[in-house]
Amino acid sequence: MSKRIALTFDDGPSDKTIKLLEILDGFGIKATFFVVGKNLEKVDFNAVYSNTLAERKIQSPEKVVDNAKNFSDEELAANCNTLKNQLKSGHMIGNHSMTHPWRKDSQGNGLENLVLDDILKELIGCQNAVYKQSAEREYTPRFFRAPEYHSVKTIITKNNSQLGFVKICEAYECNDSDYDDKSYDSSTSAEHIKNKYIEAFKSENDCIVLSHDSPVATNLVKGVGDALNLLTKNSDGSFTYQENGVRYGIEFVRIDEYYGKHNRLAQGDFLLKGQRLSSSNRQFELVFQGDSNVVVYSPNGVAAWNGDAEIYKAIGQHPCQLKIDKIELTSDGILQVIQRNQPYVWKKEVSSFQLADNGKPVVTHINGTVEYV
């Protein structure tokens, strides 16, 4: 039986990402990239944030890129093109904050030590940067990983109505850098990275691999490539790693598949503009577009279902009269759409809303009955 491995990459996009995508796409592996917003657009740090740079101590250690430094226009344009290529190839984009506040000492000067307003600006800033730079795809991250392992789960949970995260990804089982005895910088060897991947290949359980797609990760591409070249790809798309006569089965998944949230809304979940649900066979996507339309797209990009008629018929208003901001399945089973904080009931007594493998949205009611919408 194959274990599931989610390959995740923090700190990009960078000049390494395109070559990394070539390797992953060559193997048919979908990964998750937790991106930093300032890699996509410039930030006026002193104007945007209430804390000064000195107070935030945002500058990184000597061997790491200065987080208070903006990229050039050419670098930003290249990174934005990379983001579009990541989405086009079917990879998932996560939120890794806007400027990557860095913990420098035991007292902590990272994300959780900022004032609440600045924490939200860090998270919302990255959401907006990805949404804007993903262009016509209008993509908004649904998964968040904090820089440097900061735990801000309580803060985010209390303010999640503004953010729309499905999961705050604090855990990982395999890190390509051992922070206890080795800081991650350009001296981290390809051999070290490869060996960390082999640890994951041999793991008895499902695992998340954390790698760093940063400008200083000079050996990342070679390390990942060397590790994946040790695998044999099977006819069903899974992989096998063999060592000393022992065979290890592997299925690579995106982080949404790893957590099982890729094709359904459960009670308490919601969608914001730019977010989407995928069918479990990955052939269809339900997209909550920036124009408030809800559309299911087939693999060739053709609209297979348009929610305008269904949603607006159910709530009794013409599409021109209502532009929704949120689709929500409440904890008491109400599937509703929201405009300017005003809820409109779509379906009642619902336990889940998902996208079936035939591309049709499906409501499962609390009594177990299933209804196509």
TrEMBL record:
Stored PANTHER family: GLYCOSYL TRANSFERASE-RELATED (PTHR10587)
One Gene Ontology term from the biological process aspect of the record: carbohydrate metabolic process
Pfam families, sorted: Polysacc_deac_1 (PF01522)
Domain NodB homology intervals: 3-249
Superkingdom of the organism of origin: Bacteria
UniProt name for this protein: Polysaccharide deacetylase
The Bulb-type lectin domain, residue ranges: 262-373
Organism: Candidatus Moduliflexus flocculans
An example Gene Ontology molecular-function term: hydrolase activity, acting on carbon-nitrogen (but not peptide) bonds
